[in-house]
Structures are given as structure tokens and as C-alpha cells.
Amino acid sequence: MEKISVIVSCYNEEKALPLFYEEMEKVRKKDFEDIDFEYIFVNDGSKDKTLEEIKQLREKDKKVRFVSFSRNFGKEAAMLAGLDASTGDYVTWMDADLQDPPSLLRKMYDTIKNEEYDCVGTRRVSRKGEPPIRSFFARIFYKIINKMSAVEMVDGARDYRLMTRQMADSIKNLKEYNRYSKGLFSFVGFDTKWIEYENVERVAGETKWSFWKLFKYALEGITAFSTTPLILSSVIGLLFCIVAFILIVVIIIRTVAFGDPTSGWPSLACIIMLVSGIQLFSLGIIGQYLSKTYLEVKNRPVYIVKETEKDSMVEK
Ligand code: UDP
Ligand code: MG
């Protein structure tokens, strides 16, 4: 029998988790009589009772496995940890808040089976229920990153996808520290089909992503999959050199021809401000890449595991 691994990253999801499990089990019993399941809950350093909830589920259902981190490592780390622990022939990631409808899973599975795709991804076609300002910046982000990066990022794409073991393993083998899954998924290639659905609001608890966190995540995506900002800063630098050179020539000629009245220092001050601003901006861009390189070179683990279901079995 084939097996599907369902990976669920959980950060402070004590309220949503039981609801997720219930709903997912309902779908499994209805649609997946012919297929084995394993649930891998990754507790991403939750501060509430999430781990207890997971352990309770494990007590009554041996399909439930878990990985518990020593602290909060972020969703990307949780996704990788789940993948590392998974043993299924197919792998899927879902959010604990039921924003990724389990009811789509059968359709996704059938598509891979019958249409020879390696992966089926899901895409929200609406952003209903999301603050408009967030949707606005999300749109801009996708426009920018797709211009800058050779790897395609699909607007509205969720991390909820079902993929074959072969594709999952190739993602597992990407050992980079700065992980940006949306990019990694397209980087490895393979044939992906997109299923579209209307946005669903989370069942319980609240979102873990503040605007600032999302902004940093967006920068992460850009620096991880594009070096265009570096080129951009060189081009701006070059342009300014050319402009400055022309101005110098103009000023010399004007001084020689008309003498040198000491006027124009306010404009000079403005120019100094502008140019030093651009310098700092470019330096910042270089710094971004340097810091990413620094983190890669240190070769720290992406996550640290404190406990898994195997540990609690030893206890008994
Ligand atoms: N999550 C996580 N670690 C974090 C933040 C979030 O594992 O540091 C999980 C969270 O528990 C949820 C999923 O990532 O299952 C998506 O988070 P959320 O629903 O808060 O994001 P949104 O849907 O609002 O973008
Ligand atoms: Mg959510």
C-alpha cells in the first residue's frame, strides 16, 4: 500500500490542532481507504500546550508522529524537519489552521497518479479575509521577485502541495541554511500542476506572521533567489559617476568662461546627501548578501530536535 506523509508545522496551535486532526481524519476515512497515512507534527518551539496536544493524539493514533524543536526555528525549518522525518511515498505540507483544505488532497493525489505530474500545488485565487495592505504588498513582492529571479514564483501559491518521494528527496538534498521553500520548490523543477481555490480563513488562534516578519521573509526570498540587487547597485553607481563626470566638465568650462561666483552650496549639500544615501543603500545590499553568506559558511543546523515520538516510546 502506498503511503502519504502529512507534515504539519505548529507554532502555538493548541486551539487549531485538534480541529485540524479531526477534519483531516474525516477526509482520510472518506477518501483514502486505499492509502496509508502518517502525520508528522512539527512543534516549532510552541509556548502553549501544542506539544501536549500532539502527544495526546499520538496516544490514541499511531499514525501520528512528531518532531519537537528546542526553540522556535521558524516555519521553513519546521517544513524541512518534517521532510527529514517523513517516510511516505508522497509528501504534503499543511498548515495547522485548516487554511489548506484537506478535502483537496484526493484530487491532488489522483492528478499525480493519473496525469503523470510529480507535484500538485495549490494556489489561492483570492485573498479574502486578509488585510488589504498585506495583499497589496504581496502583489508587489511577486511582481518584483519574478522580474529579478530566474526561478518562477507563483503569486498566491501555498506551501500546501503533494509531491512524489523523488521530488521531495531532491528538496531534502538542498542543504542551504537560508531556506525559502517557494523558491526551492521551483528550483528543483519537475512538473507541477496548480489547483486553484478560494482563500479560507484560519479556524482558531491567530496568525503568526506580523507585517515585519513578512517583510523580512520577502527580503529572504529576494536575496536567496536573485543577485539582481547587486547588479542594480553597480549600475546606479556607474550612472552617478557618469553624471558627476559630465557635471565636472560643465563646471570647469563655466568657471573658465564666466568666472567663479560662490553660490550654489545648498544644491551641493543636496547632492552630497543623495550620493551618500545611495552609497549606504548599496552597501546595505552588499551587506545583505554578505550576511547570508556568513550564515551559510557557519554551517549551523537549520533546526535542533529536542524530542520525537521515539523518545516517548522509550519512556514506556
Ligand atoms: N508556523 C510555524 N513557525 C512559525 C510561524 C508559523 O511553524 O514560526 C506555522 C503555523 O503554526 C501554521 C503555519 O506555519 O501552521 C502558517 O502560519 P499562519 O497560519 O500563522 O500564517 P498565515 O496563514 O497567516 O500566513
Ligand atoms: Mg494560516
Task: Report on the architecture of this protein.
The protein is α/β, with parallel strands linked by helices and 316 residues long. The chain contains eleven helices and eight strands. The protein has an eight-stranded mixed beta sheet, sandwiched between helices. Strand 1 (3-10), helix 1 (16-31) and strand 2 form a beta-alpha-beta unit. Helix 5 (132-148) runs parallel beside helix 8 (211-225) and helix 9 (228-258) packs antiparallel against helix 10. It is elongated and about 90 Å long. 25% of the residues are buried.
Describe the SSE topology.
Elements: E1 3-10, H1 16-31, E2 36-43, H2 50-60, E3 64-69, H3 75-85, E4 90-95, H4 105-115, E5 119-124, H5 132-148, E6 157-164, H6 165-172, H7 181-187, E7 192-197, H8 211-225, H9 228-258, H10 265-298, E8 305-308, H11 309-315
Helix pairs in contact: 5-8, 9-10
Bound molecules: uridine-5'-diphosphate and magnesium ion.
Q: Overall pLDDT, averaged?
A: 87
Q: Rough shape? A: elongated
Question: What is the number of beta strands?
Answer: 8
Bound molecules: uridine-5'-diphosphate, magnesium ion
The low-pLDDT segments are none
Q: Which structural class fits the helix and strand makeup? A: alpha/beta
- β content, as a range? 15-25%
Number of helices: 11
Q: Helicity range of the residues?
A: 40-55%
For the sheet with most strands, the description reads: 8 strands, mixed
Distance, first to last CA: 30 Å
From the alpha-carbon coordinates, what is the Rg to the nearest angstrom? 25 Å
Tell me the series of helices and strands, N- to C-terminal: EHEHEHEHEHEHHEHHHEH
Strand order of the largest sheet: 7-5-6-4-1-2-3-8
